[in-house]
Structure formats: structure tokens, C-alpha cells
Amino acid sequence: MNAKNKIVKFNQQEIPVYFVGDKPFVAMKSICENIGLQWEAQLKRIKRNHVLNLGMSIMDIPTNGGIQEIVCLPFGMLNGWLMGVDANKVKPEIKDTLVKYQLECYDVLYQHFMPKPRKPIDLSVYVSKESYEAQALKFHRVFRQYDDMIDDLRDQVSGMERKCRRYDFKMQVSAITIDEVALKFNVPVLHIKHLFVQEGVLEERNPYVEINKKVITLTKRGQKLELVFIKTEVINGDVQDIIMVTEDGLSYLSGMIDK
């Protein structure tokens, strides 16, 4: 494996670091010699270690004596290898530094795998007990007002429903058939139908199901004005729609017929 190299300082000596793409590798023989370890023994240790052996690479490095094969480890594995180094086998001048480094490595592992301590709670982001109780009381009063408003609206709706039922009952009771209206005003029934159709109260149309038959229906305007309504009855075995005219409808017709 060919690689570009860069020189870094380690223990006051220059150590080559080789790059394959963006990934750095360190020459292990140089490091071992630098800290006083026997290279052959460390090479066997690297090969025995499953993880280090998987990461080990042999690179073809050009030297003054030609191309040489250099055993390297990924830079990220250097810490793991150093943790396994026997501090009693390194040079005395770097023993204290190595022990300190190994202790730091153990502490890092402990901090990584042990449960993280809870972060202190910043109480400044929370309201005080007095403020909380004041806000709770305020919202409680607002909600009670909403409840009272809803109750008032329900009472109003109930009152309107009662008035509508009384009006509907009165309208049904006081209404008379269109035939009776024709007699009352002494005009043909068709003339009264024509007036209601002309005023947009009734409309005559063909039904969707039955054929050869015209039906009279209330328009939307007619439903709002409530001048007439349609009552369906069975007369002599035949279902018929009967136009009923209310008191308002009689008053309306009176003005129309007198014109």
C-alpha cells in the first residue's frame, strides 16, 4: 500500500505519519524504538490482538535503501496500543509520562461507559411558587367565565328552540290549503300557484324518478319566508302533495291579488 508521509514530533523525536487518502497511519517500529520497546515483541503483540491485527497495514515506503515494507497502525488505534504497553519496559525518562497518559485513557473510558451525571437544573427558567399560584388562579377564573358564557348560550339556544317549536305548531294549525285560499280570494288555484312561482316561493319541476309528472317544491327563498309549506297525504290511495298557506302567506297574497 503506497502512502504520502508527514513528519510529526513524538517524545522530542520525529516520527513519520503516512496518509492513505485522508486516513493517517503511524509507523509502529519507529515509535517502539523511540520509547525503548523491543519491536519484534510488540509486533507479535499487535498480531495477537484481534482488533489491532485487523487495523494493521503494511505499506511500501521509499527509503534511501529502496522500497521497504513498514508496519503501521491507524492513528486512532495508537491510544489503544499504548494502553497495553508495560510501563516497566519503556525508557525511564518516559515512564512517568506513559503512566500518566494511561491513567487518563482509563478515566476517559470510565467517563464514556458509566452513566452520565444529571445536569444541574437552572431554576431561573422556572417561575416561583407565588407566580405559579397567581397564574393558576387567573386561568381558573377565566375558565369559569367561559363555562358561564357557555351555559348562557345554551339557555338562549333552548329558548329559541322553544319559540321555533311554538311558531311551527301555530303555523301548522293556522295554515289552510291552497284550494281554501282560492275560494277565499275567489281566484283560480292555478293563479295562486303562478303568483308563488313568480315570486320565487315555489317552483315546478320534473322529478328524477317519476316520469310524465310535474311536482311543486319549495325554493330556498320560500323556505326562508315560510309563506307556504308542502304537506304530503294519501288521498283515495294516491299520494298527493298539498300546498298549505300560512297566515303570513295569506297576508302576502292579499297584497299581491289586490294589485
Task: Provide an overview of this structure.
The protein is of the alpha+beta class. The protein has ten helices and ten strands. It has helices at about 30-35, 40-50, 50-55, 80-85, 90-115, 130-175, 180-185, 190-200, 220-225, 245-259, and strands spanning about 5-10, 15-20, 25, 55-65, 65-75, 175, 200-205, 215-220, 230-235, 240-245. The protein has a five-stranded antiparallel β-sheet with strand order 1-2-3-5-4. A hairpin with a 2-residue loop joins strand 1 and strand 2 (about 15-20). Helix 7 (about 180-185) crosses helix 8 (about 190-200). The longest helix is centred in the middle third of the chain and has 46 residues, at about 130-175.
Key terms:
259 residues, 10 strands, 10 helices, three-stranded antiparallel sheet
